[in-house]
Amino acid sequence: MSAHWKKHIQSNIYKMSLWLAVGLVSFIFLAIGIIELLMPVAEMARILPWADSHPVWFTRSLGIVDIAGGLGILLPFVLNSFVLHRFFLHSFVLHKLPRLLAVAALGCASKQIVAICYHLTIGEPSVVPLNLALLTLSLFIFLNRRENRKSGIKNQLASV
Fold first, then answer.
1. Burial 97-132 (b: 16+ CB within 10 A, else e)
2. Looking at the domain assignment, is residue 17 inside a domain?
3. Phi/psi class of residue 123: alpha, beta or left (left: φ > 0; alpha: ψ in -120 to 50)?
4. Residue 88 region, left (φ>0) first, then alpha (ψ -120 to 50), else beta?
5. Among 117, 39, 37, 119, which Cα is nearest to 70's?
6. Domains in the chain: how many in total?
7. Main localisation, per the record (predicted)?
8. Which end of the chain, N or C, is less packed with Cβ atoms under 10 Å?
């Protein structure tokens, strides 16, 4: 196999792994956010044992933060990949999306660090592996967006 095809295959695998990471992180954050925002506290306590030990406003605000994080990761990725290229809105919107995605991924990662510390403090170590997985995937998304932004700037400067 030629070097060109190996590079092409590696690039496709990397893109697919990024899509998978974005899909998983955004789905989990949106699902947990909807549960925290809309479900009654008594029912939520069966899924999230810590929910009944905090005020309702705190749990609802965590739901809003989770939904914002899930949308902040999903929407820029989807819009950048499909929608905006079709409508030629590159100069108006597209250049801001990688920043939003990077900030959302970093916010999700920092929330997971706090969640890991909290769950270990209250004696719920069974939840920590999910938090570690979300932390790893969020950092993967963040680092990928930073690398793409750097390489995009380098490519733009090289073409001038």
1. bbebbbbbbbbbbebbeebbeebeeeeeeebbeebe
2. yes
3. left
4. left
5. 37
6. 1
7. membrane
8. C
Residue span of the structural domain in which 68 resides: 11-159
Assess if residue 100 is contained within a domain. Answer: yes
Residue type for 12, please?
Answer: N
Closest alpha carbon to 108 in 32, 36, 14: 32
pLDDT tens per residue across all 160 residues of the chain: 677 767 767 778 888 898 899 999 999 999 999 999 999 998 998 988 888 889 999 999 999 999 999 999 998 877 776 665 555 555 555 566 778 888 999 999 999 999 999 999 999 899 999 999 999 999 999 998 755 555 543 343 333 3
Written as six digits, the tokens of 55 are 């005020």
Handedness of CA 102, 107, 110, 116 (dihedral sign): negative
User: Quick one: 65 exposed, middle or buried, by C-beta within 10 A (0-12, 13-18, 19+)?
Assistant: middle
Integer Cα distance of 25 and 101 in angstroms: 12
Q: Do 148 and 98 contact (CB within 8 A), yes or no?
A: yes
Measured between alpha carbons, how far is 12 from 132 in angstroms, rounded to an integer?
26
